[in-house]
Amino acid sequence: MTEDLLSTLPFGTPTLPALAGQPLVLALAAAALLFAIWKAVTHTDIPHIKGLPEIPGALPVVGHLFALGEDHASTCERWWRQHQWSVFQIRLGNTRAVVVNSFDDCRKMLVGNQSAVIDRPKLYTFHGVISSTQGFTIGSSPWDSSCANKRKAAGTAMSKVAMRGYHPMLDLESYCIVRDMQKDSEAGAVEISVRPYIQRFALNTTLTLCYGIRMDAVYDTLLREILEVGSAISLLRSASENYQDYIPALRYLPNNEKTARSKELRDRRDAYLNLLLDKVRAMIKNGTDKPCISAAILKDEETKLSGVEVSSICLSLVSGGFETIPGTLTSCIGSLSTPEGQIWQDRAYEDIKRYHPDIRDAWTNSFQEEKVPYLNAIIKEAGRYYTVSSMSLPRKTVSEVNWNGAIIPAKTMILINAQAGNHDVDHFGSHAGKFDPERWLEPTAPGEPPVERKSTFGVGHLSFGAGSRACSGQNIAQRLLYSALIRILSSYKIVASESEPPNTDYVDYNQFKTALVAIPRDFKVKLIPRDNGVNEECLAMTEERTKGYYKHET
Ligand code: HEM
């Protein structure tokens, strides 16, 4: 065949090299094609960062997404310990991310580089579909002047000074927890699940702040709709649930279920947000509105914020607290109900009595300040141990970060593994994996009252983040946890159910590892009244005092 071909060519044609080269050219072309394909399937928004280790085993197209599994925080913690790299890079599909694990490195990244890591990444499903109507929440807004304005307005609304105006709300909502626990547990005779009461508490407080509206029933339809939609949206923000954020081709699949589900949730959320704002408008018209963020803005009293910014602030506050507070407080009660936890409860009760010798005084003066050291220690430990937002909220660099000589470029996603940092034995000691409120107390001689240990870094753990985009609701969150816990612990001794006990493992307590905020597994407790007579008296007294507050219930 080759000879036949050769015989047809004119004399002098450079036939031999061409023919000899043909397979070579084909091979080169094939290699170039393969290289181009390889480049395309391993391409990332940010090229490989020199000098920063990358976890081996990234696959084409998906990168480390499959290897990360459902529980990103625990997988990254394991990689840290296995490779001895606290800071490493991974690939989430087409997105390069830097993961930070140890306590000291998390602190150094968030505080030492706070202007560089002030941004948040934009994700296709959450930003492009779910947030297309009400604007981005503060926690998901990229850093710009609008985000700065929203953050400032939220900061003012939740400052220590503003908190004074919320005493009636804290009084009423923490009272409602005990009122309904007392009723539903038949004064301790029936085991109950505590989470629904705490969910209503968390949601009502932020709804009151934002709209001056609350719901009295634990299973109110609107309340449950807000909680259900919020939780479903939280699931759609997780990387493991949403591959289309990192593998763009998936967005174009026919019958894209994620997009359809996102649109459905967006519409349901729009419906209740509009309903709430309409209620505020109606109350303003009738002169019955309560002081709240949206009424102030609707009446154009103070700000230069746009309508979308107002919705965004209200949405941020409502979604900021409705899962984090129940996640932390429910799990905390789970740990306190164990045999060991009951000893801490007794010590807390003793400390409450030290500051409020008459328990009725703990009811009238429990929401103005956080002064009982043992309770503060329990709250800190609950925040640390149950890191409800295990991978925090993602950050993005706006400028280069020089990380021990490796240059992390602008626009790189930064993931803070708060769960790993909060259980870092190098920082919290060898018992970092144990729930122990007393780690936050100074060692004292027997018989001496508990004294809080001063923290050198914010609240002392990473659960509220840190630096330029730290949790805006941190002050109010601490006060909410405190005002609920002091009343619950002064009313009851809490004992875990034998048939449905709590799961107190700091990873496994969470039933949905893929969600942005943990949802504790269900459990039940028995409430043993400390003094039924005093409980009834405190409830009656608070019922009377809070009668006039926030009548506008749905
Ligand atoms: C136990 C309760 C809470 C926990 C554990 C928690 C945790 C967090 C975390 C980890 C962040 C991201 C911080 C960072 O990137 O460094 C955050 C941001 C935020 N939180 Fe909280 N939070 C809690 C309660 C609340 C409450 C009650 C509100 C509002 C009423 C709230 C409002 C916000 C807002 C607005 C942001 C966004 C800040 C920004 O991006 O600039 N949080 N929170």
Automatic annotation (TrEMBL):
<dbReference type="InterPro" id="IPR002401">
    <property type="entry name" value="Cyt_P450_E_grp-I"/>
</dbReference>
<dbReference type="Pfam" id="PF00067">
    <property type="entry name" value="p450"/>
</dbReference>
<comment type="similarity">
    <text>Belongs to the cytochrome P450 family.</text>
</comment>
<protein>
    <recommendedName>
        <fullName>Phenylacetate 2-hydroxylase</fullName>
    </recommendedName>
</protein>
<dbReference type="GO" id="GO:0004497">
    <property type="term" value="F:monooxygenase activity"/>
</dbReference>
<dbReference type="GO" id="GO:0005506">
    <property type="term" value="F:iron ion binding"/>
</dbReference>
<dbReference type="InterPro" id="IPR050364">
    <property type="entry name" value="Cytochrome_P450_fung"/>
</dbReference>
<dbReference type="GO" id="GO:0016705">
    <property type="term" value="F:oxidoreductase activity, acting on paired donors, with incorporation or reduction of molecular oxygen"/>
</dbReference>
<dbReference type="InterPro" id="IPR036396">
    <property type="entry name" value="Cyt_P450_sf"/>
</dbReference>
<dbReference type="InterPro" id="IPR001128">
    <property type="entry name" value="Cyt_P450"/>
</dbReference>
<feature type="binding site" description="axial binding residue">
    <location>
        <position position="471"/>
    </location>
    <ligand>
        <name>heme</name>
    </ligand>
</feature>
<keyword id="KW-0349">Heme</keyword>
<keyword id="KW-0560">Oxidoreductase</keyword>
<keyword id="KW-0408">Iron</keyword>
<keyword id="KW-0479">Metal-binding</keyword>
<dbReference type="GO" id="GO:0020037">
    <property type="term" value="F:heme binding"/>
</dbReference>
